[in-house]
Amino acid sequence: MDFVNAIILLLNYIFIPALTYGSQLALGAIFVTLIYGILRFANFATGDMMSFGTMATILFTWYFQSLGVSLGVLPTALLAIPFGIIFMILYMLLIDKFVFKYYRHQKSPPVQFAMVSIGVMFVTQAVVRIIIGPSDRRFFDGEKFIIKAREFKEMTGLNEGLALKSTQVITIFVTIVLVSLLFWFLNRTKTGKSMKAYSDNEDLALLSGIDPKKIVLVTWVIAGILATIGGALYGLDKSFKPFTYFNNMLPIFAAAIVGGIGNPFGAFLGGYVIAFSEILLTYAYKKFFMYILPESMEPNSLVQLLSTDYKFAVSFSILVIVLIYRPSGIFKGKVL
Amino acid sequence: MRKNLNVIAAYSIMMVLILMVGIFQSWNIALSIFNLCLISAVMTMGANIQWGYAGLINFGIMGYTALGGLAAVLISVDPVQEAWRAGGFDILMSLWLIVVMVLVIRFVLKRFEKSKIRTYSIAAIIISGILLIRFSSEPGIEAIEAVDPAKTGFLGGFGLPIIFSWIVGALFAGGLAFIVGKVALGLRADYLAIATLLISEIVIAIIKHEDWLTRGVKNVIGLKRPAPYEVDLQTTDWFIKLVEKFNAGKLSVIENLADRQAALNQLVIEGSSVFVKLCYSGLFLVVVIILLILTQKALYSPWGRMMRAIRDNEEAANAMGKNVVKQHLLIFILGSAIVGIAGAMLVTQDGLFTPGSYRPMRYTFLIWVMVIVGGSGNNFGAILGGFVVWFLWIEAAPISLFLINFFTAGIPETNALKAHLIESVPYFRFLLMGLGLLFIMRYRPKGILPEKIEIK
């Protein structure tokens, strides 16, 4: 029985939260990696673009709520996400037209692109804050839990409860569907294959008659979908605050690079690598050992490798180590 | 004279702008803007050395600034004897363990040939070392943090005059830059940017959460000052006489003796804070001028020419026998050390150390905007960038408020859109910075004062 308790404990506090957080990071990381692979720059505006998409989603959610439309047990935001995506894509295309296009035609070095994306970051941050304000917002409605901890305990008679939030299930489900669709698109359709070709060798792709304008357009559309859904899922699960989204850019970058930048599948797994290592290294295992060890060997301390304050630092250290020893990432991305 | 006309013109305009703030708003505001402009100028000089001279991208400015600030705390605060008695031994033991760990790693690196086993054993040494240090230092840290946590709860510093921290801050930042440079400088430009950004976040995380060293988010307040205190000045005779002399004309108009005394008191209170700020301005100006002379000398020296050669064509410079790796490391350390000085200056001026306030927006990206806008590779440009951008950063809110009121003059105050816009005035500074950066990068990619190399 104690053993089952220990497993439930880990599931509840490590596995499910990490899987959720990892999914949110993974979507952002694929976004970063696509931009890096096809448009060839590190997009420092990632976090803020995600917050823009989330903002659009929230505004539509409020609108639907005021109309009295709802999805019953599901959050209204799911209905608003498609509209948010449209706004996000429009905003990205606008920025591309007025900012990035010029440098693409100039064939500027990646560093210059990165600097320009910092300008975009400032502007996007301002736009988001001016429209919706800097404060913390929750826009979740509907049923909060699928399984409540207390109900689970009563049902199974265990000491440990297992709480399953509906946002966690939605996040994981949506991520799986979206990522499968994306990989199907990239590997099976003609456009997807031409995107891959463009990413591998631009000149050769152009020679074989691939239209660069179309590639760029499709990239931004996919990026808009990923950014909005990733941001909205994070906001549903936790809360929406522009500053947090800006900060999330850092673990997202870490995930993309750990997975091998330019490699979407690597970025997908990278999100989980970062999320799991953050949570595994900062979790206090005292209770876990209390279950599995005999009473005489129970630990006195918290058995915590690092304090939770260092959550971010863990992922960054992993990234730095990966950068030094395997700069192309765990799953071979673009070679430096 | 002629060829420097644009420099002189740009600086004159900047000075006039600051004077206008003094005349229309208040001299206090003008001077605090001016002081922070000077500090920003030091930071941009540091970043400019790395980016403009050598083409190295450093997004870790925040980390070096914070280390400079930490130096100010460690130098100027009096040591907390009780905390040292409670946990000083444990901390020293941990430091000793770190030194031992580094030596063991060096030994392994030197003695054994590169192999998988060596890499794994080094990883094992580091992990077990961290675990050992963490568990052995815990009681000491807890004991230190328990010593009067409302006031101290940390080890304190050395109790020296805070001005020394400007040098120590440079040493701290340079030391960190040495480690970061050794590790990360081989990376390609945009990876280097990301790596330095993340490393600076790690530095901030450590400063925020190692309470025994820095008090963490509890902040250190009331640091010693190199300048006199306002309260003391207000009761000093010579200062009151000075203020009286300065405002003789204004005071003589007032007939009533009591009124005149009241007016004088008011002037003394205002004057004291202006005077303190002037003291800081003087100190900062000295630093800026010394650094400017040194960096200009360096730029036109053989070493400066070599750096530009490395920047413009690394492979050719390498083929000419220049040690690119070594020079990159050197310039990375130098630039970071200058940023460290600025960090210490900033804490000196504020008189408090707040680890929570170090955010990449303000301390990394804004500084980069300054460098790009001012003109990378040109020291005068970098300093000007610091001035212009900081000035706009502070004055953006009043300017945008004015603009909003101007364009919505016909709309009543109760209009929801207008009220919302006025409420979000503080965020227009981000918009202004972003647009400024984008426009400069597009239409004047070399900055306001572009790099200009004269062969002397």
Largest sheet of chain A: 2 strands, antiparallel
Here the CATH topology of chain A equals ABC transporter involved in vitamin B12 uptake, BtuC
Order of helices and strands of chain B: HHHHHHHHHHHHHHHHHHH
Q: Report the β-strand fraction of chain A as a percent range.
A: under 5%
Q: Regarding quaternary structure, how should these chains be classified?
A: heterodimer
How many distinct folded domains of chain A? 1
Write the layout of secondary structure elements.
The complex is a heterodimer of chains A (336) and B (456).
Chain A: H1 2-39, H2 46-67, H3 77-106, H4 110-132, E1 145-147, H5 149-156, E2 164-165, H6 166-188, H7 190-200, H8 202-207, H9 212-237, H10 242-258, H11 264-282, H12 286-292, H13 311-325
Antiparallel strand pairs in A: 1-2
Helix pairs in contact in A: 1-6, 1-9, 1-10, 1-11, 1-12, 2-3, 2-4, 2-9, 2-10, 3-4, 3-9, 6-7, 6-9, 7-9, 10-11, 10-13, 11-13
Chain B: H1 5-24, H2 27-53, H3 61-76, H4 81-111, H5 116-146, H6 165-184, H7 189-209, H8 211-214, H9 230-234, H10 237-246, H11 248-253, H12 257-300, H13 302-312, H14 314-319, H15 324-350, H16 360-374, H17 379-407, H18 416-423, H19 428-443
Helix pairs in contact in B: 1-2, 1-17, 2-12, 2-15, 2-16, 2-17, 3-6, 3-7, 3-15, 4-5, 6-15, 10-12, 12-13, 16-17, 16-19, 17-19
Structural notes for this entry:
The complex is a heterodimer of chains A (336) and B (456). By secondary structure, chain A is mostly helical. Chain A has one domain: ABC transporter involved in vitamin B12 uptake, BtuC (Orthogonal Bundle). Chain A is built from 13 helices and two strands, in the order H-H-H-H-E-H-E-H-H-H-H-H-H-H-H. Chain A has helices at 2-39, 46-67, 77-106, 110-132, 149-156, 166-188, 190-200, 202-207, 212-237, 242-258, 264-282, 286-292, 311-325; strands at residues 145-147, 164-165. Chain A has a two-stranded antiparallel ribbon. In chain A, helix 1 (2-39) crosses helix 6 (166-188) and helix 3 runs antiparallel to helix 9. Chain A is globular and about 70 Å long. The termini of chain A are far apart. Chain B has two domains: 2-79 and 156-443, no CATH class; 80-155. In chain B, helix 12 crosses helix 13 and helix 16 packs across helix 17. The longest helix of chain B has 44 residues, at 257-300. The mean pLDDT of chain B is 89. Chain B has 456 residues and is mostly helical. The two termini of chain B are 16 Å apart. Chain B contains 19 helices and no strands. At the A-B interface, helix 4, helix 10 and helix 13 of A face helix 5, helix 7, helix 16 and helix 19 of B.
